[in-house]
Protein: BPS1-like protein
Organism: Salix udensis
Amino acid sequence: MNSFSSLLQDIKNLESSLTKHSLSLTWCSEATNLLRKMHFQFLDMFQESEPILRWTGSAMNMAEIEKLEREWLRLYGIENWKNVNLYRNGRPKTKTRDDIFRAAHVVRRTMNILCLLLFCAIFYPVSIEVDEEVYRDFPQLKSFSSSLRKLVCCFFEERKGVNDNSRPVLAETKMVETAVEELRGEILNGGVPLNKEKLKKTIDSLQNSSLALKEGLGIFDSAVDELFQEVVKGRNMILGLVASS
């Protein structure tokens, strides 16, 4: 449960950052970094489960084994492979094993919610629901699901008032759009002579907002690259287990 205590603080920090930085590329980068951390923990849980899953004892139902396989493989898009069986021999039903798989499911569901939040921030809003059933297996995670729900509510509060999905919602893109509109207004001002001082300020504002957007995109791009590197490592690890099974 130590990992969940850390994740709980991360979720709270993400909500705090959303309030502080508004909906921005900075926040998207932080959410992506948290996704990378959670992906690492997801794989760590999988590796921890391997020794437990190799114990001898009463055999598990094959349907249950196949269900567990699909859960681990689904994240990497290989759940439809034929004749794939990570756990060929029957496995014992143990509380430790159950806890690990349930904890992994909690992490996976939380990752899904973060992915949806990022999708809503970059593209357009979709419905997001926190599945309370996932967290009920661990009473100590009640505050975790509550914080996650607060994060989702805070996110959509930031999006409130944006009815046109084609309009930018990220702070950096809003700044650029505002500067462009101001510059357009300065130039197309109905034949009134240009105010050079005001025009210079508008151009400076556009340059500064464009620079902020460029820097934000660079940080976000780096965070996404690091995330995908971790995903590739995880996929290779799973494929290695499949090949050796």
